[in-house]
Design a protein that fits this description.
CATH architecture of the largest domain: Alpha-Beta Complex
CATH topology of the largest domain: Aspartate Aminotransferase, domain 1
Shape: globular
Order of helices and strands: HHEEEEEHHHHHEE
Oligomer: single chain
CATH class of the largest domain: Alpha Beta
Radius of gyration: 18 Å
Length: 201
C-alpha cells in the first residue's frame, strides 16, 4: 500500500510563509482527492492521478502557486485561474483565505473528467521571448559578469526573474530579489531556490 509523505516531509524545508501555505494546500488537496500520489516534482510538490500530474504546488517568497495541468480547458466562472501558458493555469495563494476548497474542488472534478476521457491535451501558442530587462538589473548582470549566464537560462526563467524582481513594491525587496538571482546564476544549478538541471531552452 502506497504511503503518502506527511506535509512536514514535503514542505518542511520551505521558507516560513510558503511552508505554512503549503501545509494548508496539502490538507485541502488530500481532503478533496485522497487518492492522490504525492511526490517532489519539478518546481515544487506534485499531486498525481495515475500517470497524470494534476497539481504542482510551487513556492515563492510571499505566496505559493497551485499549477493545474490542462488548466486552459477548465471552466472558471469564479475567474480564479491565472497564467498564459500553453497548457497550465494556476491559483495564486497569498493567504489561507485565498484557498477556496469549493472553487478548487470544482476545478479538480472537471480536470479528472478530462483525464478520464482520454482526449489529447489542448495547447495554445504563447510567445517565448523573455521580458525586457530593467536597467538596474542589466547593469548588475554586466558588473558581475553574469550576462552570459542569464542569456543561457531558458526564456521562462528570464521572464520569471524579471517579473519577480520588478514586481516588488519596495526597493530593498527588489535588491534582495536581484541578489538572489545573481547568486543563483553564479551557482548555475539553482532556480528560485530550487534545484535546476540545464537542458533545452
Amino acid at each position: 500500500m502506497r504511503t503518502t509523505p506527511s506535509k512536514q516531509q514535503l514542505y518542511g524545508h520551505w521558507a516560513s510563509k510558503p511552508r505554512s501555505l503549503g501545509y494548508r494546500a496539502h490538507e485541502v488537496l488530500m481532503r478533496l482527492a485522497p487518492d492522490y500520489e504525492v511526490r517532489p516534482a519539478w518546481r515544487g510538490i506534485g499531486y498525481k492521478w495515475g500517470s497524470n500530474y494534476s497539481v504542482v504546488v510551487s513556492p515563492y517568497e510571499d505566496h505559493i502557486k497551485l499549477m493545474l495541468w490542462r488548466g486552459i480547458e477548465l471552466p472558471d466562472p469564479a475567474r480564479a485561474l491565472q497564467g498564459t501558458g500553453s497548457n497550465t493555469r494556476h491559483l495564486r495563494i497569498g493567504s489561507n483565505a485565498d484557498l477556496n476548497p469549493d472553487v478548487l474542488g470544482a476545478l479538480l472534478n472537471h480536470q479528472r473528467r478530462i483525464f478520464a476521457s482520454g482526449k489529447p491535451a489542448e495547447r495554445r501558442a504563447v510567445p517565448r521571448h523573455a521580458k525586457a530587462i530593467p536597467r538596474f538589473v542589466s547593469s548588475e548582470l554586466d558588473a558581475r559578469g553574469l550576462r552570459q549566464a542569464y542569456d543561457e537560462r531558458p526564456a521562462y526563467q528570464q521572464r520569471d526573474y524579471v517579473s519577480w524582481i520588478s514586481g516588488a513594491k519596495r526597493e530593498p525587496t527588489q535588491l534582495r530579489r536581484l541578489e538572489q538571482m545573481l547568486e543563483e546564476l553564479e551557482t548555475g544549478n539553482v532556480y528560485m531556490n530550487m534545484p535546476w538541471k540545464r537542458g533545452k531552452k
